[in-house]
Amino acid sequence: MGAHRGPLLAVFAALTLGACATSPYRESVDAWTRKSSAYDQFDVTTLVTATLGVEPFRKAYADEYARLFALTPEQKVSLQETLGEEDRRALVVIVAFYTAQTAWNDLNPARGIWEVRLESPRGDTAQPYSVTRIDKRNPTWKALFPYLEAHDTLYELRFERNLPDGRPLARSGEDLELVIAGAPARTRLRWTIP
User: Are strands 90-99 and 115-119 parallel, antiparallel or unpaired?
Assistant: First the structure.
């Protein structure tokens, strides 16, 4: 029995490490997610965690969604096509937003609490044409965005990919920043477009 313990422990360790390894989807979430926080003295005013829905993330998202819902190959292809069509028009950012005061937690521009925009290195900007508060009680969102915390509000922000003159807001290799600014706090999150 003692002679076999070493190989058995090695197999068990390999299986355990394999189970703890991150999935391709989780790696994609980590790669395309940025975090920022703002403080007033020592008190947190805002915590922002945001994922930019670029093509590599969108592909991983479709794979994970298909896995979670056991989609048929045909359903998965349909999902990928729908996401691809959306991607050609919009830059989508998923934002988990925490504010010290509950009343501040509203990214809808009509409320006037926050200026929300995407900004290119050339100074071009785009405001969201759609701000959707997502029902985080649905367990799907915690599975897809594991950074979502109990006190966060989850938003989907959609921005036009192209400027009114037809130029892209940001080109491949350029940085793109999400700006959320207002009287309570200011934050910037940056990604490099693939």
Answer: unpaired
The end-to-end CA distance of the chain, in Å, is 54
pLDDT reported for residue 78: 96
Residue of 158, 34, 31, 172 lying closest to 92 (CA atoms): 158
Instruction: Determine the length of the chain.
Output: 194
What angle, rounded to 10 degrees, do the helices at 73-89 and 55-68 form? Answer: 150
Q: What residues does each domain of the chain span?
A: 24-192
Q: Which CATH number fits domain 24-192: 3.30.70, 3.30.365, 2.60.40, 1.10.10?
A: 2.60.40
- Phi and psi at residue 46, to the nearest 5°: -145, 150
Query: What pTM, to 2 d.p., does this model score?
Result: 0.86
In this prediction, residue 9 carries a pLDDT of 38
